[in-house]
Amino acid sequence: MAAAEDTPVARRLRGVKHIIIVCSGKGGVGKSSVSTQLALSLRASSPTARVGVLDVDLTGPSIPRMLGLDGHSVHQSSDGWVPVYADGSEARLACMSVGFLLKKKEDSVVWRGPKKNAMIRQFLSDVRWEELDYLVIDTPPGTSDEHLSLVEHMAPVHSRLSAVLVTTPQAVALMDAMKCLSFTRTTSIPVLGLIENMSGYVCPCCGEISNVFSTGGGEEMARREGLRFLGSLPVDTELVSLLDATEPESLGSVERLADGGSVRSFQLLERYQNTSTAPLFQAIVDKVVQALSGDDSHMNAAI
Amino acid sequence: MIALQQAAPVPDPLSVPSNAPEHCPGTESELAGKADACAGCANQEICASGQTKGPDPALPLIRQRMSTVKRKILVLSGKGGVGKSTFTAQLGWAFAADEHLQTGIMDVDICGPSIPTILGIATEQVHSSSSGWSPVYVQDNLGVMSVGFMLPSSTDAVMWRGPKKNGLISQFLKDVDWGELDYLVIDTPPGTSDEHLSVVQYLKESGIDGAVVITTPQEVALQDVRREIDFCKKVGINVLGLVENMSGFVCPSCRNESQIFKPSTGGGRRLAQDMGVDFLGAVPLDPRIGKSADYGISFLDEYPDSPAGTAYLGIIDKIKQKLGD
């Protein structure tokens, strides 16, 4: 990975302290939901923390919807693209996604690899993130163009990279998670830990816990592979509905708040902290922050 | 049949270097073999000779191979983890339940092949003969091809960029000895990218009979599925219909149904209406479906009378009807 230290990407990301890649081999296990929660919780971790979310799932961007930013668009300034701020004027939660570049929500992005590669390079070199404590990168499923491009373009900042793996407990998902782990090992990105998502579902009617997608597989895998197990998250319908954003914003309000942020996404932060998942996730974030600050943590993951 | 063709050796996906040229101009480009990025690429000479610029030489071979396949069905979804592979497997099993029919399943999810596990044949390997690669048979009339059969270990990651994935898909279509097939069901990865474009491109002449699009009820999934249907329209694939998976959950303890993934914007039914495609049915979330997939057994054979089983069968009947079979 001998790359010139002074690439546009390196210059742009100079003020970013930690870059966390959220990945999983499998689709639909909750990468975007984990990325969103990670960003919200990291932002809440200190009154001055500044967090960025970069969505590199180019053909299926979900982050705008989850942060309640559907319909926003990106502004071009003389110094690059201005990210969309989910918290408006406070400007501590910046977000960038291909979703902001599409005219209609049903427009498909039918791109082959080289075009995706170019878009990712632009995201990394042209977005004006400014100073960030954490940049959370949400990835698409698989280990292909997007992932290789990320690693390639971020080679100059490789020392600040780390990854969080997400899986669900079924064997089929764990198999893909193993592939993802093998990817992080090949590219020597330290793994902060593994999250087991959709681990059990509490019936709202009788309180019985059903293991809709089985349970425990993630923890078992973490132990076997010597990874830090960050925690398991049950299916939380409240959270699903919150991130699914039942009420899409009317176009009027979008225009009014065109210079970034919206009233609703402020509420999102508050409402998130009231879900039953938020305290569980707080424990995960504590472990992530701990792993980022302790250098010894990088050791077992980098093997 | 395709006697003139040399038996293609089964490739070892890991023998291909993952650091192939970063800025490959594409084999059909004017710059193929001449760009800076091509220096040192193993295929530089082939590209530079101009051989690659004409129409893909694989196309006639694919057409010939596919001429014995009656129906080609794609299973698509913009979103991952909604049950594409599970549905593909059920569809394959259901077609193969009629012993007079020959069915094939092709898994073009190169980076995350789940089909071998779901069908319970994860440890099998592909063999090549003079007539091509033999599919792995689940039963006499159900053959399967997946990159999963070619990996030395299931934990190995296939870190490929687009062109390499396309190459393998083309081989799946031209080098696999499918024989006479009544149905070929193609399972795809999430998204609308290389794999999808390649399948459509390679099968353009042979014709795709239609696509079954899978979704789950929440808006985050529907957003991606809208894009997938838009993709089908753009490239001219007939959408057979939409299936809503994980639609409601019946608690095994109190028998009450709850919505795990709430259809906050009307779910699949509404989406089908809005996009002008048929709604084929909704399959409730049943933990036994996932478990069956993990153990590689057919959910339909085990629990045909469960609500999810009935829903699957209803959907499969509709698909057959729409195909006119």
UniProtKB/TrEMBL annotation, chain A:
<dbReference type="Pfam" id="PF10609">
    <property type="entry name" value="ParA"/>
</dbReference>
<dbReference type="GO" id="GO:0140663">
    <property type="term" value="F:ATP-dependent FeS chaperone activity"/>
</dbReference>
<keyword id="KW-0408">Iron</keyword>
<dbReference type="GO" id="GO:0051539">
    <property type="term" value="F:4 iron, 4 sulfur cluster binding"/>
</dbReference>
<keyword id="KW-0547">Nucleotide-binding</keyword>
<keyword id="KW-0479">Metal-binding</keyword>
<dbReference type="GO" id="GO:0016226">
    <property type="term" value="P:iron-sulfur cluster assembly"/>
</dbReference>
<dbReference type="GO" id="GO:0046872">
    <property type="term" value="F:metal ion binding"/>
</dbReference>
<feature type="binding site">
    <location>
        <position position="203"/>
    </location>
    <ligand>
        <name>[4Fe-4S] cluster</name>
    </ligand>
</feature>
<protein>
    <submittedName>
        <fullName>Uncharacterized protein</fullName>
    </submittedName>
</protein>
<dbReference type="GO" id="GO:0005524">
    <property type="term" value="F:ATP binding"/>
</dbReference>
<comment type="similarity">
    <text>Belongs to the Mrp/NBP35 ATP-binding proteins family. NUBP2/CFD1 subfamily.</text>
</comment>
<dbReference type="InterPro" id="IPR000808">
    <property type="entry name" value="Mrp-like_CS"/>
</dbReference>
<dbReference type="InterPro" id="IPR019591">
    <property type="entry name" value="Mrp/NBP35_ATP-bd"/>
</dbReference>
<dbReference type="InterPro" id="IPR033756">
    <property type="entry name" value="YlxH/NBP35"/>
</dbReference>
<feature type="binding site">
    <location>
        <position position="206"/>
    </location>
    <ligand>
        <name>[4Fe-4S] cluster</name>
    </ligand>
</feature>
<comment type="function">
    <text>Component of the cytosolic iron-sulfur (Fe/S) protein assembly (CIA) machinery. Required for maturation of extramitochondrial Fe-S proteins. The NBP35-CFD1 heterotetramer forms a Fe-S scaffold complex, mediating the de novo assembly of an Fe-S cluster and its transfer to target apoproteins.</text>
</comment>
<keyword id="KW-0963">Cytoplasm</keyword>
<dbReference type="GO" id="GO:0005829">
    <property type="term" value="C:cytosol"/>
</dbReference>
<dbReference type="InterPro" id="IPR028600">
    <property type="entry name" value="NUBP2/Cfd1_eukaryotes"/>
</dbReference>
<keyword id="KW-0411">Iron-sulfur</keyword>
<feature type="binding site">
    <location>
        <begin position="25"/>
        <end position="32"/>
    </location>
    <ligand>
        <name>ATP</name>
    </ligand>
</feature>
UniProtKB/TrEMBL annotation, chain B:
<keyword id="KW-0479">Metal-binding</keyword>
<dbReference type="Pfam" id="PF10609">
    <property type="entry name" value="ParA"/>
</dbReference>
<comment type="similarity">
    <text>Belongs to the Mrp/NBP35 ATP-binding proteins family. NUBP1/NBP35 subfamily.</text>
</comment>
<keyword id="KW-0067">ATP-binding</keyword>
<protein>
    <submittedName>
        <fullName>Uncharacterized protein</fullName>
    </submittedName>
</protein>
<feature type="binding site">
    <location>
        <position position="24"/>
    </location>
    <ligand>
        <name>[4Fe-4S] cluster 1</name>
    </ligand>
</feature>
<feature type="binding site">
    <location>
        <position position="41"/>
    </location>
    <ligand>
        <name>[4Fe-4S] cluster 1</name>
    </ligand>
</feature>
<dbReference type="InterPro" id="IPR033756">
    <property type="entry name" value="YlxH/NBP35"/>
</dbReference>
<dbReference type="GO" id="GO:0046872">
    <property type="term" value="F:metal ion binding"/>
</dbReference>
<feature type="binding site">
    <location>
        <position position="251"/>
    </location>
    <ligand>
        <name>[4Fe-4S] cluster 2</name>
    </ligand>
</feature>
<keyword id="KW-0004">4Fe-4S</keyword>
<dbReference type="GO" id="GO:0005634">
    <property type="term" value="C:nucleus"/>
</dbReference>
<feature type="binding site">
    <location>
        <begin position="78"/>
        <end position="85"/>
    </location>
    <ligand>
        <name>ATP</name>
    </ligand>
</feature>
<feature type="region of interest" description="Disordered">
    <location>
        <begin position="1"/>
        <end position="29"/>
    </location>
</feature>
<feature type="binding site">
    <location>
        <position position="38"/>
    </location>
    <ligand>
        <name>[4Fe-4S] cluster 1</name>
    </ligand>
</feature>
<keyword id="KW-0408">Iron</keyword>
<dbReference type="InterPro" id="IPR027417">
    <property type="entry name" value="P-loop_NTPase"/>
</dbReference>
<feature type="binding site">
    <location>
        <position position="47"/>
    </location>
    <ligand>
        <name>[4Fe-4S] cluster 1</name>
    </ligand>
</feature>
<dbReference type="GO" id="GO:0016226">
    <property type="term" value="P:iron-sulfur cluster assembly"/>
</dbReference>
<keyword id="KW-0411">Iron-sulfur</keyword>
<dbReference type="InterPro" id="IPR000808">
    <property type="entry name" value="Mrp-like_CS"/>
</dbReference>
<dbReference type="GO" id="GO:0005829">
    <property type="term" value="C:cytosol"/>
</dbReference>
